[in-house]
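BUG: 3D viewer hangs when loading the predicted structure for this chain

Environment: internal workstation, default settings.
Expected: structure renders.
Actual: progress bar stalls at 90%.

Input used:
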Amino acid sequence: MEAAELRVGFVGAGRMAGGLARGLLRAGKVPASSILASAPSDKNLDAWRESGCRTTHCNLEVLQESTLVFLATKPHVLPGVLQEIRPAVGPHHIVISLAAGVTLQTLQRLLPAGTKVLRLMPNLPCVVQAGAMVFARGSGAGDGEAALLKSLLSSCGLCEEVPESYINIHTGLSGSGVAYVYLFAEALAEGAVKMGMPGGLASRIAAQTLLGAAKMMLETGEHPAKLRGDVCTPGGTTIHALHQLEKGALRATVMNAVEAATNRACDVAED
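C-alpha cells produced before the viewer hung:
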C-alpha cells in the first residue's frame, strides 16, 4: 500500500497524536483530507480542523473511514476503546498503539485474531519532527506493515524497529530522557548566568550546544567518548570541567536515572 493511498485515523487527538500528524502533513506523506481524528470533546480537535484534517467524536467512524489507525488514548482508557472498536476492525486495517505499558499480547487479545497490530513508543520532540521512536510488531504484522510505518514516521524523526522488550528501555532512555536533557540544559545555562551572562542568551547557547553535539554524534557515527576526548586538550578548560562532573558522579547518576525510569515503565506495564 502506497502512503498516498492511505487513509489515516487517530483515536485520541492529544499532543503526541497531533505531533505525528503534523509530521505526516509537513512531509507531504498524507494529505490532510485523508486524516481523521476522534476525541470525546472539541478541546483538542480545533487544531486538527485548522490543519485541514477531518474530525469526529465517534471512534467507530475512524475505523470505518481509515486503513491505518493510531490508538493514541491514555493507557487506562485503551481497553474500553478496543472493546468499542473491535467489531469494526478488519483484515485491511493496520492498528498502531501509542499507549505506554499496553503490551502486544494484550492488544492482540483484545482485537480480532490476525489483526495487523504494532506498538509504537514516540517521545515528545516528535511534536517538532525531531523525535526518537521505536516500534515492535505483533504476529499479524509483516515486513510490509513495518516498512510502511517506518517510511511514514521518518518525517517525525528517528524511527527504528526493535524487539518489544526494548520498548520500556526506550522509555527510560528517550521518552523520559528528554527531561534529563532539559535539566542538563538548564544547569548549563544557569552556570553561565552565575558567571555573568544574561539568561535568555545562555539558554539559547545551551540549546544550540546540545543540538550541535547531538548532530555530530549522528553524522559522524563516532562514540561519544571519542568526541568528548577530541574536545579535551592537556591541562585545558574542558578537562578541568569534566573532572568536576566526574566528582559529582554525573555518569553514574544518569545511568541510575535510565534504570529507574525503565523499571517504572515495567511496573506500569504489570499494573
